[in-house]
Design goal:
single chain; mainly alpha
Length: about 140
């Protein structure tokens, strides 16, 4: 981040404002992903048993766990680090932590994309559970 390398208050203010605006957009996007993810989970899993007894369900739970961890990191950034960007004493530390946390979030996002790719090759859990019930009868 340029604001870490250059001790210019104007650059620091621009970085803080940009981070705040991006954080608001991020909250809107995360809310949308959360709602559509809940609908998709219901449509593709259908039951808690499908989530806990199928390979698809296990991967879906892992994806959900990574998503929640990303939300936790983003919330920490928004609530704890972004406000510190306005403090002359804490700006370097906050910038460093924001940069590190952004890399963590990006890594979790990449892992989620890999999981989504694998999920796309598997039959949805609702079908696996239905198939198991049909074969049991």
């Amino acid at each position: 981040m340029a604001s870490r390398r250059i001790a210019d208050p104007a650059i620091t203010m621009v970085a803080r404002d940009a981070t705040s605006r991006f954080s608001i957009l991020g909250m809107i996007v995360v809310g949308t992903i959360l709602v559509t993810g809940m609908v998709n989970t219901y449509m593709l899993a259908g039951s808690a048993a499908a989530l806990t007894t199928t390979h698809y369900g296990h991967l879906l739970l892992l994806k959900i766990g990574l998503f929640l961890a990303m939300v936790g990191v983003a919330a920490f950034n928004r609530l704890r680090l972004v406000p510190r960007l306005s403090s002359a004493y804490a700006v370097n530390d906050a910038s460093r932590l924001l940069q590190r946390n952004s890399l963590i979030e990006a890594t979790m996002g990449l892992l989620i994309l890999v999981i989504v790719g694998v999920l796309g090759t598997l039959p949805p859990a609702i079908h696996a559970v239905d198939s198991a019930h049909m074969h049991a009868n």
